[in-house]
Amino acid sequence: MRKTSTKLLIAATLISTQSVFADFADGLVGGLVGGAVGSVITNEVYNSNKKSSQPTYRPVHRKSSHKKHVRKSTIRISDEMKIQKALAGMGFYHGKIDGEVNSFETRTAIKELNTAYGIGNSAALKPEEKDTLIYLGTLFIFDRYLIARGSDNRTKGKRIQTALKVLGFYHGKIDGAIGPGTRSAIAEYNSAKGYGTSAALDFESEYQLITQAREANDKNINDAINSLKAMGRPPVRTQQSTQKKQPSATPTSDNEPAEPRVIKLQTPQQTPPVNTYQ
After folding, report:
1. How many CB atoms lie within 10 A of CB 20?
2. Residue 144 maps to a domain
3. For residue 58, what pLDDT is reported?
């Protein structure tokens, strides 16, 4: 009876021991496996965090905070373009203002001008005619600036600069920028007109400035056109030059005697005899 119980006790002890060793082994293996898996997971998380923490280079096109002031290319108006503008302003040219004075349209306009004003029948320009057309083209440009509508700073600045230039107070470029030169011209204009010495214009003084400039520019245009017309007119002969020069009774020099003055004597009229007989 004791042997049986002892065997049962030993068997139970072995079973419990095996189960303990099995649990220990399973726990050990599970711990090793769990540790390995945990380390893998930990490494992946660490690497992902490391990758996410590291800055990645991406080409980003950032807009510069400094604004680039791009100026519009100022087109220089050549003398040839001014000739075309003058011909267009007088109604002889209807083409593009490109400076091609030898084009068919421009030469046709020149010929029409010469024919209309009696200058000739060719498509060539005389030197004085060319200079007048260049000046006239400039005046037409001034007229366009003076009558331009718009309240923006550029348009208003060009209008004021042109008016001051026409009246002889401004000698710079017409670019619409009211700088020191323009303000100095405004002060000079105000002083000349008795408006004070201010370098600014109020509404009334600006209106007077533009009005006076337009009147002066219109007069200059008319004078230039009249000078073109005068180129085709024949020289005016005075009445004195057309009459024959009468001989003078006084000597022309000390050695030349004066021509004798011819005096016609009138013969007395004979009265018919009076017949006393009836």
Report:
1. 10
2. yes
3. 57
Q: How confident is the model at residue 5 (pLDDT cuts 50, 70, 90)?
A: low
> Which of 27 and 168 is assigned the larger pLDDT?
168
74 falls within a domain: no
Domain that holds residue 32: 1-50
User: Contact 176/154 with Cβ under 8 angstroms?
Assistant: yes
Task: Note whether residue 104 is domain-resident.
Answer: yes
| Residues 99 and 212 both lie in one domain | yes
Residues 6+ apart with CB under 8 A from 111: 121, 122, 123
Residue 224 has pLDDT above 70, yes or no: yes
As a whole number of Å, the CA-based R_g of the chain is: 55
Contact residues for 164 (Cβ-Cβ < 8 A; gap 6+): 170, 182, 185, 186, 189, 209, 213
Q: Look at residue 272 and give its three-state secondary structure.
A: coil
Of 177, 181, 136, 125, nearest in space to 156 by CA: 177
Domain count, the chain: 2
Same domain, 35 and 102: no
Burial class (CB within 10 angstroms; exposed 0-12, middle 13-18, buried 19+) of 156: middle
Q: Which amino acid is at 3?
A: K
The answer on 221 and 177 residing in a single domain is yes
Rounded to whole angstroms, what are the CA distances from 109 to 88, 115, 125, 224? 9, 10, 11, 17
Give pLDDT tens digits for 157-188: 999 999 999 999 999 999 999 999 999 999 99
8-state DSSP, 108:
H
Is 17 part of a structural domain of the chain? yes
Nearest to 139 by CA among 195, 75, 218: 218
